[in-house]
Design a protein that fits this description.
Blueprint lengths: L2 H24 L3 H17 L10 H19 L9 H30 L3 H12 L4 H8 L3 H27 L1
């Protein structure tokens, strides 16, 4: 690996949480989001020679992401939930400003998830990692769809409280 690729990889690794937050705010489908994020990573590495190291890397990487999201949106014009260019521009400015605080919260989410009991962890995984709807989850875990939805709400509440508690502890 040459030195330029090594530097690009280092910078990307640090910027990836903020870029991921930007892409996630624009691309709601999990599979599409992962594809767009992968395209962004490739574009960042390929266009790293155009990056000016005197400027902050995260806003530059979000600019690359903005272009990739724009390509994705143009291909998805027929969808009802598509942001316009102005909304994308506003988020591209806002995400780098809040990214450092929010990146810490992502770590807390991981910690809080590890504290869930196995059944709750399984429901969370089916919903948010496998992107299954409550009705499909219900069939798989032998519960009613309504029970699954309520359980997921309780899990989200527990995770929110846990993340807020850890955030307060970290700032104290």
């Amino acid at each position: 690996m040459d030195e330029t690729t090594r530097q690009a990889t280092r910078q990307w690794t640090l910027a990836q949480p903020a870029v991921s937050a930007f892409v996630t705010s624009m691309v709601r489908d999990f599979r599409d989001r992962d594809d767009v994020l992968q395209d962004v990573a490739v574009a960042v590495i390929e266009s790293f020679d155009s990056y000016d190291p005197k400027l902050p890397f995260v806003p530059w990487a979000i600019g690359v992401a903005r272009n990739q999201v724009g390509l994705y949106m143009r291909n998805r014009r027929k969808d009802r939930l598509v942001f316009d260019e102005e909304a994308i521009a506003c988020l591209a400015i806002a995400i780098p400003a809040v990214a450092p605080q929010e990146a810490a919260k992502l770590n807390f989410v991981t910690e809080c998830l590890s504290g869930l009991e196995s059944r709750a962890h399984r429901l969370f995984e089916l919903r948010y990692q496998k992107d299954m709807k409550p009705a499909a989850i219900a069939e798989r875990v032998d519960m009613s769809a309504n029970s699954v939805a309520k359980a997921l709400q309780r899990i989200r509440d527990r995770l929110r409280v846990c993340v807020e508690r850890k955030s307060l502890e970290a700032t104290s």
